[in-house]
From TrEMBL:
Keywords (A to Z) from UniProt: Membrane, Transmembrane, Transmembrane helix, Transport
Domain Major facilitator superfamily (MFS) profile: from-to ranges: 1-45
InterPro entries, per database record: MFS_dom (IPR020846), MFS_trans_sf (IPR036259)
Domain of life from the UniProt record: Bacteria
Entries under PROSITE patterns matching the protein: MFS
Protein's recorded name: Major facilitator superfamily (MFS) profile domain-containing protein
Transmembrane segments: 6-25
């Protein structure tokens, strides 16, 4: 049961990061921030 909760929490983090960027950054900066996030994730994998 604990691993399921851990997996659910870990899967929510990327979605929440995208929501935060879409909500709190201006439209002009969103592309740059999304690019930075996706490149960081791809380097981490």
């Amino acid at each position: 049961m604990r691993r399921e909760i851990q997996g659910a929490g870990a899967s929510a983090i990327p979605a929440l990061i995208m929501v935060v960027v879409a909500r709190y950054f201006s439209a002009a900066d969103r592309g740059k921030i999304f690019g930075l996030l996706t490149s960081t994730v791809s380097f981490a994998m």
